[in-house]
Specification:
Layout: E1 5-9, H1 14-22, E2 27-32, H2 42-48, E3 57-62, H3 67-77, E4 81-84, H4 90-100, E5 103-110, H5 113-117, E6 128-133, E7 163-166, H6 174-181, E8 185-188, E9 193-195, E10 198-199, H7 201-212
Parallel strand pairs: 1-2, 1-8, 2-3, 3-4, 4-5, 5-6, 6-7, 7-8
Antiparallel strand pairs: 9-10
Helix pairs in contact: 1-7, 2-3
The structure holds ligand LARABZUK.
The ligand O=C(O)c1ccccc1NCC(=O)[C@H](O)[C@H](O)COP(=O)(O)O binds next to strand 2 and strand 8.
């Protein structure tokens, strides 16, 4: 049985949550970013969140959020984790973590080896780094685009805080990614969808199955 934690990100429907639960996901991610096909407003989150069992972490994915939207999402979603996916500096991450008392993750966009080092500045500010593929300049979204980075960059990298791997993962490549990186947590969105924002239950099952075999 795999010890690797699984986050299914960008869920918008009860059946996607149920599929993630059947697959043994440890985290489900709710995206709040109006330009995203996965965007959920607080009211929609409030409808969906109770579907997630208590032992599974509800993660809000946010881009440079202000305190008001953080508070609205926490009130709506009974959140366990805030995933900051914008340009939040360490001081802002630390302030959000301190103010909310929630586990706080910082996404680190990666294209080259130099990008990995940017994560080190978040030691003491964040609870976890999420190494994700850097999306192209001018892209509509800072994540959730199915891009991957060179996973060999992570071989031998020892981040100073817990971490996870994200970006372009799917059922066919996740075992390879885990062999190369040894990631303790994997995060997927597009790779378990049939179209942007549309989760595919069979792909969720296949992804979780592939991770569980590792
Ligand atoms: O998924 C989105 O639409 C999104 C929008 C704005 C900021 C972050 C977003 N997603 C972040 C995630 O956690 C994704 O799971 C991660 O980037 C991996 O996505 P994918 O490559 O599609 O698996």
């Amino acid at each position: 049985m795999s010890q690797v934690a699984i986050k299914i990100c960008g869920v918008r429907t009860p059946d996607a949550i149920d599929a993630a639960m059947r697959g043994g996901a440890s985290h489900v991610g709710f995206v709040h970013f109006p330009r995203s096909p996965r965007h959920l407003a607080p009211a929609a989150l409030a409808d969906l969140a109770p579907r997630v069992p208590e032992h599974v972490a509800r993660v809000a994915v946010l881009v440079d959020p202000d305190d008001a939207i953080i508070d609205a999402l926490i009130a709506a979603g009974g959140l366990h984790v805030l995933q900051l996916h914008g340009r939040e500096e360490p001081a802002r991450v630390a302030a959000i973590r301190q103010r909310t008392g929630l586990e706080t993750w910082k996404a680190i966009p990666v294209k080259s080896a130099a990008d990995l080092a940017a994560g080190n500045a978040y030691a003491g500010a964040a609870d976890r780094l999420l190494f994700d593929a850097k999306t192209p300049e001018g892209a509509a979204l800072p994540g959730g685009m199915g891009h991957r980075f060179d996973w060999t960059l992570l071989a031998g990298h020892r981040p100073p805080l817990p971490w996870g791997l994200s970006g372009g993962l799917d059922a066919d490549n996740v075992a390879h990614a885990l062999r190369l990186t040894g990631a303790p947590l994997v995060d997927v969105s597009s790779g378990v969808e049939s179209a942007p924002g549309i989760k595919d239950m069979d792909r969720i099952a296949a992804f979780c199955e592939a991770v569980s075999r590792c």
